[in-house]
Design brief:
YchF_C; binds magnesium ion; Ubiquitin-like (UB roll); Rossmann fold; DNA polymerase, domain 1; single chain; 3 domains; 365 residues; 43% helix; 14 helices; binds guanosine-5'-diphosphate
Length: 365
């Protein structure tokens, strides 16, 4: 189980530049190698201050941050939903991801052609979103035909599914994504998930701005921000070219450079952190043997399931979890001090792991 963010957008908006910069960051964020899985997919570490503090406290020979997978999806063009260009391949790829990072070009560059000739970020967003909407309408159309047949054949359970499909179709017809449809029950949410729609996925708009406009204050950046706000979507700015150059520097040089540009933290780290929070994921830590590691799980994951994140044997043979909150470990100074003080809690398989927990799983092999 992993989580994947798909970088999407029109051609020449900076998707690959951003993907490569993200991949380069991985190289120095762990003592384990973070490899590119396939040419267009890479694991990117979620670097956050707690892991760094734990590593300096424990000084383990090995450590590794949990990762989010990023996929550089082929550029989308008008007509993709009808199979134009790499249409089908593109849509097939984004179907597999958990969240869409929709890159919108706001940088001028006379050497790099814009597919439509001029910079029109809001129209660009719409071009991409329309293709996703059309693809979903097509999916729903096919599903409706199938479901109606099954209902006629006596499968009355599917009547609810059909009702939800109709509600979603209505939204799509008005240009609204499936994620905007308010769902009343867990059952409705389950049906929506099963429909596997592209516009049901969370979206994060990423304005790829000029070097001189890192805060996205230009009118182009503002337009995207406004649009994202109206959709209730997340919005971030970065300069792909700049991040790509920074990612090639050594760490000290990077810090210096960021100070000059008054970039508080790496925009790429901010991007990964936003993906984590948007997907409602939390982090827990293990300090076992020679390694300190962080792990990412969805909120409200039970201890036994969380153990399975590390190894299926640990889930199967789960006995109990010994748990310590991050802050308590830091104030105690070490795991053994915390144990002496009686701070370590014994939790069963139903315990819901909390963000920042440090967990030692006990299991039968
Ligand atoms: N000026 C400028 N050029 C950029 C920026 N990001 C990407 N580019 C350039 O735009 C071109 C297309 O970028 P690429 O990442 O291949 O776009 P993709 O087709 O979306 O993957 C490359 O020549 C990049 O160097 C940026 O932030 N500023
Ligand atoms: Mg590309």
């Amino acid at each position: 189980m992993g989580f994947t963010a798909g970088i999407i957008g029109l051609p020449n908006v900076g998707k690959t530049t951003i993907f490569n910069a993200l991949t380069a960051v991985g190289a120095e964020a762990s003592s384990y190698p973070f490899c590119t899985i396939e040419p267009n997919t890479a694991r990117v570490p979620f670097t956050e201050h707690r892991l760094q503090t734990l590593v300096s406290l424990v000084a383990p020979p090995k450590w590794a941050a949990a990762t989010i997978q990023f996929m550089d999806v082929a550029g989308l063009v008008k007509g993709a939903s009808k199979g134009e260009g790499l249409g089908n391949q593109f849509l097939g790829h984004i179907r597999t991801v958990d969240i869409l990072i929709h890159v919108v070009r706001c940088f001028e560059n006379s050497k790099v052609a814009h597919v439509e000739g001029v910079l029109t970020p809001v129209a660009d967003m719409e071009t991409v979103n329309t293709e996703l909407l059309l693809a979903d309408l097509e999916t729903l159309h096919k599903r409706t035909i199938k479901i109606k047949k099954l209902i006629r054949g006596g499968d009355k359970k599917l009547i609810d599914t059909l009702k939800i499909i109709e509600r979603i179709e209505m939204a799509l017809d008005q240009g609204q994504p499936a994620r905007s449809v308010p769902l009343l029950t867990g059952e409705e949410a389950r049906i929506l998930k099963e429909l596997d729609l592209l516009t049901a996925k969370e979206v994060l708009y990423l304005a790829n701005v000029d070097e001189g406009d890192l805060q996205g204050q230009s009118s182009l950046g503002q337009q995207i921000q406004q649009q994202a706000l109206e959709e209730g979507a997340e919005f971030l700015t970065l300069c792909g070219d700049l991040e790509a150059s920074i990612s090639e520097m050594d760490p000290e040089e990077q810090d210096q450079f960021r100070q000059e540009y008054t970039l508080s933290a790496s925009s790429l780290e901010r991007l990964v952190a936003t993906v984590v929070s948007k997907l409602k994921l939390i982090v827990f830590y293990t300090i076992v043997g020679q390694a300190v590691r962080s792990w990412i799980i969805p909120e409200n994951t039970a201890a036994r399931k969380a153990a399975g994140r590390i190894h299926t044997d640990m889930e199967k043979g789960f006995i109990k979890a010994e748990v310590l909150a991050y802050d308590t470990l830091i104030s105690a100074g070490s795991w053994s001090d915390a144990r002496q003080e009686g701070f370590i809690r014994q939790e069963g398989k139903h315990y819901l792991v909390q963000d920042g927990d440090i967990v030692l799983f006990r299991f039968n092999v």
